[in-house]
């Protein structure tokens, strides 16, 4: 709602938790030092112990999140409510001052929830949207039919609620990057999703016997997008489903170029994939961007796809896209990009890649002194 990224929200959440732990430990030490005794027969002390235990048990969902993220999240939320209730019971009931801070925090929380709920109701027009869900070539595609047209910036995401996916999905919302983009408010939102465990596996099950339609609810759009209007050259680097983060930027950049709102001269998409299935699944979306690029005959988009297979030769893939065998030669790509650009022009690199690939790119940028080159990490990293 405030345009804050998921990454920033998570960091603030972790920071708030650490501060709360430090304050609780300090409070417990000071209390034990001044009072000397700690009897559990006293209700206040018992609730204090429950609050401390609920904090310590938070380590359990941290250990479980790699096995089942949904279960870990619910345990974390439940323990947080237990902690808040225990703190409320622990605070002296005599006088308003001790409980005033808790009332203020609760009021801010409830106000934020009410505002978010009101925004969700407005954008969903006090009802539920319909979504067409399909699965093909190891890719889940979702198209939301909106009840009210919505304007999105490239790179923004929505939180999606699909109650029919499974029993647990009734209490879950999941963030997904919107791959469609238009300079006008959109009546449809397209999602390009990697099937994994948990919620995405439930989505896959919905379309097991073919495309299906389901009722959904969404919140958003969220995220403050990267500004790309000051660059003459844009290099987009993706691995696997990281292409989802770049698809809306491709269309926006091409539109901005044709309307002469940015000084953009060149766009190069470099995409590394493990097999052709995902490439074929995204081919229609990429060809749509290429078709828009050729509207006035002034081509600025080039697509290079690297397929990690020993049985692949250099071949054309659709219109003005080429498939190369092997891994992306990152150093060569960066060298060519710098050599082919105009002198003193700026290059922006948008990245949505696997961790190891990202580490290699960072190492290259640190080792070689590239001038006028800015790195931007997308919110979604596969």
UniProtKB/TrEMBL annotation:
GO terms for molecular function: ferric-chelate reductase (NADPH) activity. PROSITE patterns: FAD_FR (PS51384). Keywords: Cell membrane, Electron transport, Membrane, Oxidoreductase, Transmembrane, Transmembrane helix, Transport. It is an enzyme of class 1 (oxidoreductase). One of its GO terms (biological process) is copper ion import. CDD domains: NOX_Duox_like_FAD_NADP. GO terms for cellular component: plasma membrane. It is a multi-pass membrane protein. The keyword Electron transport applies. Pfam families: FAD_binding_8, NAD_binding_6. Residues 120-228 form the FAD-binding FR-type domain. Its main location: membrane. InterPro entries: FAD-bd_8, FAD-bd_FR_type, Fe_red_NAD-bd_6, Ferric/Cupric_Reductase, FNR_nucleotide-bd, Riboflavin_synthase-like_b-brl. It is found in: Cell membrane. Belongs to the ferric reductase (FRE) family. This is ferric-chelate reductase (NADPH). It comes from Aspergillus novoparasiticus.
